[in-house]
TrEMBL record:
<dbReference type="InterPro" id="IPR050577">
    <property type="entry name" value="MAPR/NEUFC/NENF-like"/>
</dbReference>
<dbReference type="Pfam" id="PF00173">
    <property type="entry name" value="Cyt-b5"/>
</dbReference>
<feature type="domain" description="Cytochrome b5 heme-binding">
    <location>
        <begin position="85"/>
        <end position="181"/>
    </location>
</feature>
<feature type="compositionally biased region" description="Basic and acidic residues">
    <location>
        <begin position="21"/>
        <end position="34"/>
    </location>
</feature>
<keyword id="KW-1133">Transmembrane helix</keyword>
<feature type="transmembrane region" description="Helical">
    <location>
        <begin position="53"/>
        <end position="74"/>
    </location>
</feature>
<feature type="region of interest" description="Disordered">
    <location>
        <begin position="1"/>
        <end position="48"/>
    </location>
</feature>
<keyword id="KW-0446">Lipid-binding</keyword>
<comment type="similarity">
    <text>Belongs to the cytochrome b5 family. MAPR subfamily.</text>
</comment>
<protein>
    <recommendedName>
        <fullName>Cytochrome b5 heme-binding domain-containing protein</fullName>
    </recommendedName>
</protein>
<keyword id="KW-0754">Steroid-binding</keyword>
<keyword id="KW-0812">Transmembrane</keyword>
<keyword id="KW-0472">Membrane</keyword>
<dbReference type="InterPro" id="IPR036400">
    <property type="entry name" value="Cyt_B5-like_heme/steroid_sf"/>
</dbReference>
<dbReference type="InterPro" id="IPR001199">
    <property type="entry name" value="Cyt_B5-like_heme/steroid-bd"/>
</dbReference>
Length: 290
């Protein structure tokens, strides 16, 4: 049978041509096989690209995280919000921990003085005030243990007013961060009787200052100068005469009365309480003071 087929192919030229074509032309894959092959090639290409992208994405992610950390560390913390402090809490902010702000209290008001580190830091002249309320020391100058207190007992209205002037200075210069529970504020942040007493003393001092100003406006201070050759000298403008007069002071008065040199017209020289400088003529408008 095979021999007859072979013989037929040999004898028939058209059959011989068809057989040759089947041998020379390779078998063509079907459309489904072509699609599967294409998908496989695409999948391989995607895997290669993904393999190259993964390290790059990882590097970008790490860079973003590091940048966020650096930005966080480089950004200074925002100002503290005012709140109520206990003495124990405030004591932690005395400069012993460099990571904490520098806080102090005056008349019960708490301030962040960190930007004044050169003055209030561990090596500063006023580091004694940190972590506490040492209101009294602002006028006494006593920076020892006994002097670093918030007790104002025995202070005059003018001295308490000086402490209030310091508190006003801190309110304009540093950040206010709350109230200290104790002598001046209760646990709810309400003023105590002691703070109300301080307010009355400050009002008295303000009234006294107005009286002193009115007195100086009426009887102006003398001109004065000092030199190594002549010592001290006071004088008044023409028609006025220098006299020693007591300052307007609050009562009851502590210690000897304060004095000043004031200029008076001739018809005012008989006013009670005026004193002439030693070795000075009664009607001289210039006197030596030493």
């Amino acid at each position: 049978m095979a021999e007859s087929v072979t013989a037929e192919v040999k004898e028939n030229p058209s059959l011989r041509a068809r057989a040759k074509a089947r041998v020379d032309k390779p078998e063509q894959p079907s459309a489904e096989k072509q699609k599967k092959s294409k998908n496989s090639e695409n999948a391989a290409t995607d895997d290669e690209q993904l393999g190259r992208l993964q390290p790059a994405c990882l590097g970008i992610g790490v860079a973003v995280v590091l940048a966020s950390i650096i930005l966080y560390l480089a950004t200074p913390p925002g100002p503290m919000k005012p709140r109520i402090w206990t003495p124990l809490e405030l004591a932690r902010y005395n400069g012993s921990n460099p990571k904490l702000p520098l806080l102090l209290s005056i008349l019960g008001s708490v301030f962040d003085v960190s930007k004044g580190h050169v003055h209030y830091g561990p090596d500063g002249s006023y580091h004694h005030f940190l972590g506490r309320d040492a209101s009294r020391a602002f006028v006494s100058g006593n920076f020892t243990g006994a002097g670093l207190t918030d007790s104002l007992k025995g202070l005059t209205a003018s001295e308490i007013k000086s402490i209030e002037d310091w508190r006003f200075f801190f309110s304009k210069t540093y950040n206010y961060v709350g109230k200290l529970v104790g002598r001046f504020y209760d646990e709810d942040g309400n003023p105590t009787k002691e703070l109300n007493r301080v307010a009355k003393k400050i009002a008295q001092a303000n009234k006294l200052a107005e009286q002193q100003k009115a007195d100086e406006d009426r009887f102006p201070n003398c001109n004065s100068r000092w030199s190594q050759d002549k010592g001290g000298e006071v004088w008044c403008n023409s028609g006025h005469y220098p006299r020693i007069v007591e300052r307007v002071a609050e009562l009851p008065r502590k210690g000897p009365p304060g004095t000043r040199c004031a200029c008076f017209e001739e018809d005012e020289l008989k006013r009670p309480g005026l004193r002439v400088y030693e070795s000075c003529d009664y009607y001289s408008n210039k006197c030596n003071t030493s």
